[in-house]
Every structure is written in structure tokens, then in C-alpha cells.
């Protein structure tokens, strides 16, 4: 059994579909950053400059996110997928 690390780092994916309003991605991002910060958990997620509002909507967005996670694979303890338009 492995020990829980002192500092958790989670990969965060914010999913979206083209026909849903993009502002939901921005709101989910703000809320996720605030929540993880309050819990003392580091995050690795797309920057709004990498894809539209930092969300994953297209196959190309997914490839960009996969490369980001691949780059940080030694730091990421788990992945959280947020689907703000399915709530």
C-alpha cells in the first residue's frame, strides 16, 4: 500500500460541447481553482490561452491536454473531470 503524498496534485479537465455556452467553462474553472486552493491541492489544467477558456471541446483540445498531462505525469496523483454543462 502506498502512502498519501504530503502535497496532492490533480490533473483537471473541464469538458465542454460546442452547443453549450462557453461561460460555463469559465465559471467551472474559477470554482475549481478556488476549491482546490482552499483544500491545499495543486492543480494542473489547461490555461485559457491554450484552448477556448482552458476547456476541452475538440479532439485537438484533448491532444493539447494529453501533452500537458504527459509533461507533468510524475507530479499528477489523479485526474478530475468537470462537466459543468451536465449539472
The major pleated sheet works out as: 3 strands, parallel
| Strand neighbour order, sheet with most strands | 2-1-3
Estimate the global geometry from the Cα principal axes.
Answer: globular
Radius of gyration: 13 Å
Spans of at least 5 consecutive residues whose pLDDT stays below 50 are none
CA distance, first residue to last residue: 35 Å
Q: SS-based structural class? A: alpha/beta
Return the string of H and E elements. EHEHE
In percent terms, what proportion of residues is strand?
Answer: 15-25%
Give the helix proportion (percent range): 25-40%
Total of domains: 1
**Average pLDDT level:** 91
Strands, total number: 3
Q: Determine the number of helices (DSSP H or I, runs of at least 4 residues).
A: 2
Notes on the protein architecture:
The chain has 2 helices and 3 strands. It is α/β, with parallel strands linked by helices and about 90 residues long. The protein has one domain. A 3-stranded parallel β-sheet has the order 2-1-3, with helices on both faces. Helix 1 links the parallel strand 1 and strand 2. The protein is globular, with a radius of gyration of 13 Å. The termini are far apart.
Descriptive key words:
alpha/beta; 2 helices; 87 residues
Question: What are the SSEs and their pairings?
Answer:
Blueprint: E1 9-14, H1 23-39, E2 42-45, H2 59-71, E3 78-82
Parallel strand pairs: 1-2, 1-3
What does this entry show, briefly?
This protein is an alpha/beta fold and 87 residues long.
